[in-house]
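Quick start: what a row looks like.
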Amino acid sequence: MLAKFSAYFLTSSNFVLTDAAESIVNILASSFAFFSIYLAAQPRDQNHPYGHGKIEFFSVFIEGGLIGLAGLVILFKSGYNIFYPHEIKELVAGAIIIGATGVVNGGYGYYMIKRGKHLRSITLEADGKHLITDMVTSLGLVLGLLLIHFTQILILDSILSVLVGLYIVYTGYKLVRKSVSGLMDEADFDIVTEVVSVLNEKRRDQWIDIHNFRAQKYGNDLHIDCHLTLPNYLDLIQVHDEVKRIDQLINEQVTKTELFIHTDPCVPQCCHYCRMPDCPIRSEAKTEDITWTLEKVIRNKKHFE
């Protein structure tokens, strides 16, 4: 931030000010992100039986809102200076300073996105994307400053600032949209698809079908509830063992997950796609092999219905 404001005072360029203003947002947003990650990592308690992970969505909302606000301020000032231009100077020196900060932010951003995906932290990923946005705007700014320097078309300073401001506002909107979808428990189809893919790959003959599959995220914790159809002649211990296998499979191969599995007994209509060998109650031969897909497992009905 200090480097970018130094570049602004050196050049008096609105274009540079867009990047400097966004760096203030970086500090405020990252400070709240730091606190939210700390809070999200706290274990569940009596008041928060599902943990504290939802705070991450608030963090992303605040970050997106601050980014959008910075973009609007940039648009206002840049629009004003289109009609009331002022002198700009030392553009090459300013470009060097901004370029260096862009490279640093880009390196941090890629690292944070990588860690955010690994830890399934929406806050780390959002902050990383914010820094990548900062890198893109900084590199675009360097090119713009050099263009203004060589062409001496000074109005380009404000015009390019407006374009960057629009990009920043759009970035803020995407983050706000993502946070609201999380707070509203919008389905995360990527994680659901990954879970279904693992279940399909490791599917046991006893797992006749899975349906009414729903997933809800609390930070990096995933909560899944679904219905699992099992052979109706299994005893309670066998049913418990099958549910435990699914729980271990998802936790080991996908992510930290809390599962609530409702078990259903099979009915004769399941026989045509049941994989159980030597089934003592089979009413008809197996004639169909149903692959589990997102569309099939999210329905609140067995596969034959």
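That is the whole record. The mean pLDDT is 82. The domain at 2-183 is CATH 1.20.1510.10 (Alpha-lytic protease prodomain-like).
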